[in-house]
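User: Please fill in residues for this 553-position structure.
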């Protein structure tokens, strides 16, 4: 099964320049972050600013093939610097603004980023303070330049680093030297974090070509047109926020950037800008559709997109409000909007998790879980993809890249699904224990490894209990303690807050005398199914099964 063909330039900067030429004076974006206070840029103005930033980064010593990291929420500076990086042929490494010290240090080390664009404080979040652990290991890093955004300096940074404020970059000359070169189609362009088998995230690499090929196809599948106004409330640092935003940018639409989801600010932005299109996580979208203020303040909103396993209620509620809601499927490796349904299809069809492949040449098959052989429509197995818009590998991790592919080169998603008899595919669930927490896909091993670093913890296990409203999992951790050690659940949660991204912190940490187990040839195995039972009872406030009863803290 294959996505539709769609012609597009082979680089991101060419794709953007084409949009500028088509709509030079049209408003490209409105930045509704606290600092920007509604700052607007036309396509021509955004192009000019990105060229000035590119010239400044080149002057600072960045060259084609170098990596530049962003610790920056969604804002105009994020967009302009991304376009500048595309023009220079740099690799953009967006750092999740919820990551903590160990995660930031790991990603800066692995990426070998030579520059870091950072807002020391943004929307009341102190991002600079989270870099302390990275600075303690500065000799392991390749960074030589910091670009502070909405600040003159980055507090606490090592004195050996050059600090080049964004305002200085944006005010400089726009001409690049003749020998500066430009990003080429197969240059690595951007990485997206994805859950790994340890506490260290992997970075899925996409090239200029994969981005510039997928983005127009995603725009066409979403039905984006130049007259649309799109609200961007999902982080540009992740593929689910990046793809619809970049698709809009390539289509000449006006986009409103809101770096945090707040219902009052969302309703205000929808009304003030006549927003017609929005991509949103399913939990906040449910809340928005149930808000009585929606109909009175947002008459222009006509299309919303989300991703979930069970969104029939969202599609129905949207239809009542005169809005078309559509499900999409994707990941860091194959992009968000890798598959979706046509907006004109029935409510029932648009609610199905999965879709038809979107990218040109993107193919999907379902493989038998035991033999790996392709199976017929209707038979469940692992969803696998191949095509020109897939990631090219995990950055500096050839072993993980090899494990993620079959012998004949198809990407193994780790998702269970089936091909549909007519067309498209149905996504059913993850094959493993991965869970979605606050909109992010999390491998329990990430959290378990973080907990195990606490000196009192002997063994840690994480399970999830699905929230029917948000579509997310409530993460509940269970631990046993080392002999003679003491700790409380809240103490262990605080340890997680200091070591892991905020969204990975368990809702509860329960201390057990022992884990429920089942015998096996390789030793007793922990029964995660029984832990999930216990977690569900804990959340419901009922008695817990005796096989996994928490100790008294």
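Assistant: Residues filled in for all 553 positions:
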């Amino acid at each position: 099964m294959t996505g539709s063909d769609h012609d597009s330039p082979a680089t991101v900067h060419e794709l953007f320049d084409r949009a500028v030429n088509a709509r030079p004076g049209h408003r490209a974006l409105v930045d509704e972050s606290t600092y920007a206070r509604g700052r607007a840029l036309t396509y021509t103005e955004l192009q000019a600013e990105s060229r000035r930033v590119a010239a400044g980064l080149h002057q600072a010593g960045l060259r084609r093939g170098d990596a530049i990291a962003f610790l920056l929420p969604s804002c105009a500076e994020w967009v302009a610097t991304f376009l500048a990086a595309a023009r220079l042929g740099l690799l953009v490494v967006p750092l999740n603004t919820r990551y903590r010290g160990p995660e930031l240090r790991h990603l800066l080390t692995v990426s070998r980023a030579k520059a870091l664009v950072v807002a020391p404080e943004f929307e009341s979040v102190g991002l600079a303070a989270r870099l302390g652990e990275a600075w303690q290991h500065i000799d392991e890093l390749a960074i030589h330049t910091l670009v502070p955004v909405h600040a003159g300096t980055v507090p606490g940074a090592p004195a050996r680093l050059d600090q080049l404020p964004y305002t200085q970059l944006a005010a400089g000359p726009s001409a690049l030297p003749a020998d500066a070169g430009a990003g080429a189609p197969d240059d690595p362009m951007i990485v997206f974090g994805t859950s790994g088998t340890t506490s260290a995230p992997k970075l899925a690499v996409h090239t200029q070509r994969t981005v510039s090929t997928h983005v127009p196809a995603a725009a066409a599948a979403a039905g984006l047109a130049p007259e649309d106004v799109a609200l961007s409330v999902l982080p540009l640092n992740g593929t689910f926020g990046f793809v619809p935003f970049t698709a809009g940018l390539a289509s000449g639409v006006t986009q409103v950037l809101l770096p945090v989801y707040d219902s009052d600010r969302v309703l205000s932005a929808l009304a003030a800008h006549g927003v017609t299109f929005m991509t949103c996580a399913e939990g906040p979208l449910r809340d928005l559709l149930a808000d009585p203020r929606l109909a009175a303040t947002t008459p222009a909103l006509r299309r919303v997109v989300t991703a979930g396993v069970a969104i029939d209620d969202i599609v129905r509620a949207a239809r009542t409000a005169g809005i078309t809601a559509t499900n999409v499927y994707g990941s860091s490796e194959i992009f968000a909007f890798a598959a979706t349904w046509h907006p004109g299809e029935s409510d029932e069809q648009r609610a199905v998790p999965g879709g038809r492949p979107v990218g040109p040449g993107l193919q999907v098959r379902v493989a038998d879980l035991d033999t790996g052989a392709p199976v017929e429509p209707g038979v469940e197995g692992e969803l696998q993809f191949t095509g020109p818009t897939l990631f090219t590998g995990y950055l500096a991790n050839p072993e993980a890249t090899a494990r993620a592919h079959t012998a004949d080169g198809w990407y193994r998603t780790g998702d269970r699904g089936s091909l549909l008899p007519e067309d498209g595919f149905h996504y059913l669930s993850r094959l493993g224990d991965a869970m979605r927490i606050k909109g992010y896909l999390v491998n329990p091993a990430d959290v378990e490894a973080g907990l195990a670093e606490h000196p009192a913890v002997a063994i840690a296990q994480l399970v999830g209990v699905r929230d029917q409203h948000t579509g997310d999992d409530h993460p509940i951790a269970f631990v046993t303690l080392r002999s003679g050690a003491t700790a409380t659940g809240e103490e262990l949660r605080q340890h997680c807050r200091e070591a892991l991204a905020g969204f990975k912190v368990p809702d509860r940490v329960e201390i057990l005398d022992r884990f429920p187990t089942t015998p096996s040839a390789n030793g007793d195995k922990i029964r995660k199914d029984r832990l999930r039972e216990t977690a569900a009872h804990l959340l419901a406030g009922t008695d817990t099964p005796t096989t996994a009863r928490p100790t008294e803290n």
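For context: The longest helix spans residues 43-59.
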